[in-house]
Design brief:
By secondary structure, this protein is an alpha+beta fold. It is 34% helix and 18% strand. It has one domain. The protein contains 3 helices and 4 strands; from the N terminus they run ββββααα. The two termini are 21 Å apart. The chain binds zinc ion.
């Protein structure tokens, strides 16, 4: 499927089985369920051609982005984590630095 990046306009191609396009999706290990929690994004919704464009667009629209996040209620993880969860969060952040 041909896409045009929402940030830079560059043309790129995505398929359900390719790793092209962002956000692609990710996940984390949950001790609560003793399993991996995953969220994946369908190809047609990977609207940025690169991770850099995704972050650029988010930074440029940060007011609307945070307003939208806050409108979703208090179901976020923006609280001081326990020591156990903190080690998990560091692992996720390290993972998110790729790309
Ligand atoms: Zn782009």
């Amino acid at each position: 499927m041909k896409m045009h990046c929402k940030a830079c306009g560059k043309k790129y191609y995505v398929t359900e089985n390719s790793y092209n396009g962002y956000p692609y999706g990710s996940g984390y290990w949950s001790n609560d369920i003793d399993g991996y929690v995953r969220a994946s994004v369908p190809a047609h919704q990977r609207v940025f051609h690169s991770r850099n464009c995704w972050e650029y667009w988010t930074a440029k629209n940060i007011d609307a982005y945070t307003l939208w996040l806050h409108s979703m209620g208090n179901d976020d993880n923006n609280v001081q984590p326990t020591n156990r969860d903190n080690s998990i969060n560091e692992t996720i952040e390290e993972r998110n630095n790729y790309g």
